[in-house]
Amino acid sequence: MSGGHKITTEHRRDVSEAISLKEELSAEHLSSAGEFVADLIRYDEGETFASKEVKVESFIHAVGVQNRNSKATVVVYANRADRVRHNIPTVRYGTPIIVVESLPAILAIACSAIRDQRQRPIQLGISGGHKNVGYGTVGGFCRENEDSSLLVLSNNHVFANLNKGSRGDELYQPGSGHGGSAQDTFATLYKYETLHLDGITDNRVDAALGRVNDDIGYKNEICSIGRPRGIREAAEQMDVRKHGARTGLTRGRIEDISYDTVVGTSSGVAKFTNQIRITKEPRKPHIALPGDSGSLIVTGGSRNIRAVGLLFACGIGGSYAIANPLQAVLDTLMVELVVGNI
Amino acid sequence: MKTLKDTKQEITQRYLNQYGIHGVGMDSRRKTVMIYASADKADERKAVLKQIEETARPYAVRIVLEEEPEMTFVL
User: Fold this and answer.
1) pLDDT < 50 regions, chain A
2) I want to staple A197 with a disulfide (CB 3.0 to 4.6 A). Which of A48, A268, A303, B30 is the partner?
3) Pairing of strands A198-203, A170-172
4) Read out DSSP for B15-62?
């Protein structure tokens, strides 16, 4: 060994015992680290700075062995050393243990930072759309029943090009406005609810489904938000958030759940009744802008994310957004939202 | 007595997409029919405001001036 150190039998035994102890501590503490790291990423992206909904807990994310003062020592790495020290002995089986504070290594680039780019596996809240549409947002995963193929939800005007699409048309991720092309096809148009554009006939939803191609990987997580765990009916004064392809993560408050409105389109005027109206956070520039269509509106903390609506319109300038009630979307398309793991 | 929701629906049927009114909703806590309108056509709207308030009675009416909605996609 270089440096003139002599490895003694005693030192070898020290190292061997420390490695065994490291494995024991890894088994005890690292099993839930992944979920905590996911929370930390969301925290880092700014979601939780203004929120009381998610608290990043103290956790251990790595365990190793170092030679300290000529003694093999197990080193436990935690995001907040002071909060985990009381759970870790300073010595076990004669081997010293120390706790070092450090942030976990994060290999993945944050989904939100590349929401306008190709992402595989496909996640929710990112750019996508019909081949002849610039882009909207990939909203949620659905199924017709347990055995059916995986479907992906957005608006008619995003996936079905305002009634002009045909079953089997390619859907791109990212959308063509973000450079998507045939090689970025991730799904094909499966079905949609026709939009009435006469300004008189009521529309309840602006919704369409794509069928996800078999060779496409997918992850049932909304960028910067997490995995939807269920559905909740909208209520006045409910705090909500969304992640869309244009404006990323934004927050707002539902102020009306019986909102009737007329929305102009390039093909006519669409009248919608009993919609959800959401206003932006004070001092924020907007809640949504063109490109965010198809975003799921959700409520609840990071471990209890509930989908409430499907965003389809906003005020020019983005001070308010309009969403279809999600249950109406699912009932109309006769599907269920996929919650939890796929 | 008619409900707030019935009242909102009646106002939607009579006035939505006219006089610059692009949205009709309700605030159930304040028992108020909400009318969202663009700033233009203010004179025409003023002329029908009394009718709207009559229709809404006994509920209050609040008019919010704001930009009209657009679909949120990029062509």
Assistant:
1) 1-4, 43-55
2) A268
3) unpaired
4) HTTSTTEEEEEEETTTTEEEEEE-STTHHHHHHHHHHHHHHHTTSEEE
Closest by Cβ to B5, choosing from A158, A237, A258:
A258
Query: How confident is the model at residue B11, as a pLDDT?
Result: 97
How far is it, in rounded angstroms, from Cα A253 to Cα A242? 11
Here the ipTM equals: 0.94
Q: Which pLDDT does position A101 carry in this prediction? A: 78
Chain B contact probe: residue of A195, A256, A267 with most B CBs at under 10 A = A256
pLDDT of residue A68: 86
* pLDDT at residue number A100: 86
CATH code reported for the domain at A230-328: 2.40.10.10
Domain boundaries, chain A: 2-101, 124-195+205-222, 230-328
- Please give the biggest Cα pair distance in chain A: 90
- State residue A4's pLDDT score: 47
Task: Map out the domains of chain B with their CATH numbers.
Answer: 4-65 (3.30.300)
Residues in chain A within 8 Å Cβ distance of B22:
261-262
For CA atoms A149, A150, A156, A158, the dihedral sign is negative
CA of B21 vs chain A CAs: smallest distance (Å): 9
